[in-house]
Amino acid sequence: MSNFDFVFSLFGLLLGLALAEVLGGFARALQKRRRIRIGWLSPLIALILLLDISSFWLVAWAVRDAIPIRSFPMMCGLAICALYYLVASLAFPHDLDEWPDLDDYFDRHKRVLMGGMIGCNLLALIGTMLLGINPIDNYHSLVSIPAFLIPAAAVALIKDRRANAALLAFIALQYPLGAGLAMIGW
Q: How much is the pTM?
């Protein structure tokens, strides 16, 4: 086991728990779908969280050789993973009976949800730069980073649910599109 494998086992555990929080929240909502209105906003934010956490996991793996196993990088990784976990735990209410409409829940918590995801991405970008790696070293990154950050900030600020749903769908579609573009070398 390498040093990275040893340290990343902690981060992998936190990220795995974050994924489980999102999936568990969605499962609880589906179980109560006859008594609550699920809507589109909470499932979309859940999908984005799943995709974003998975993409962070891939970025961490890609830069693993550049990460020194010391306290500061460990604390930075812990901060990002802990923030992902906190955001994931807020994606769905724990007491669904208090929120008969999940779109209302999303409206009430979207600033924390979007702000937390923006924070995770910015911390990851800064951490990558501190490692001496240019996170914007190709056209894909040059486009995808602002194409995530700007709509995510807009969701946090815009009150219109249709606009939020469209922006969230736009963010979610970037992940498979980005994966496809990466496969062809863009």
A: 0.91
